[in-house]
Design a protein that fits this description.
There is one protein chain. With 146 residues, this protein is of the alpha+beta class. It has a domain of 99 residues: 2-Layer Sandwich (Alpha-Beta Plaits). Helix content is 30%, strand content 23%. It is built from 3 helices and 4 strands; from the N terminus they run ααβββαβ. Strands 1, 2, 3 and 4 form a 4-stranded mixed β-sheet that branches. Helix 3 links the parallel strand 3 and strand 4. The longest helix has 20 residues. It is extended. The protein starts with a helix and ends in a 17-residue tail after the last strand.
């Protein structure tokens, strides 16, 4: 009888590994805000070499702060997204090559993070930024005391 009692107790015990975790078994829909996709595109664009800033005022008003959607507009559907960008490009870079890299980077990041296929990235170059001259600091005098 004690053996029967032990087996009934084992049936009542739930192991953590037996608890369903969701994943593919749970249905539902994910809605994606246009601002979320625009923010992803903004951060992806900033990582592309040759992009100085986004938005018309980007190169004039750096001290105001960074709006994560400035210079980016997104249209988002259930499976696709279209993105419009206004960029400030660094002087001297190949605009065609940079635009191609920009499109690819944005498409990859939006697909990875938001699960949306980017069907187009329209780019409007609104400014060119000259490379900032690096000002060399005067050497610091040696410490007076050791």
């Amino acid at each position: 009888m004690s053996q029967q009692k032990e087996s009934s107790q084992k049936k009542d015990t739930i192991m953590v590994s037996d608890i369903p975790t969701g994943g593919d078994n749970v249905g539902g829909k994910i809605e994606m805000s246009e601002d979320v996709v625009a923010t992803i595109a903004n951060f992806a664009a900033r990582s592309v070499k040759g992009i100085a800033n986004l938005g018309k005022a980007g190169f004039l008003y750096r001290s105001i702060g960074v709006d994560p959607t400035r210079g980016v507009a997104a249209e988002v559907g259930e499976t696709q997204a279209a993105i419009d960008l206004e960029i400030v490009i660094e002087y001297g870079c190949d605009i065609q090559k940079t635009a191609g890299e920009l499109r690819q980077k944005i498409a990859d990041e939006v697909a990875r993070m938001a699960g949306r296929q980017v069907i187009e990235v329209n780019i409007k170059v609104v400014g060119i930024q000259m490379a900032e001259e690096k000002v060399e600091e005067a050497p610091k005098p040696p410490p007076r005391v050791k």
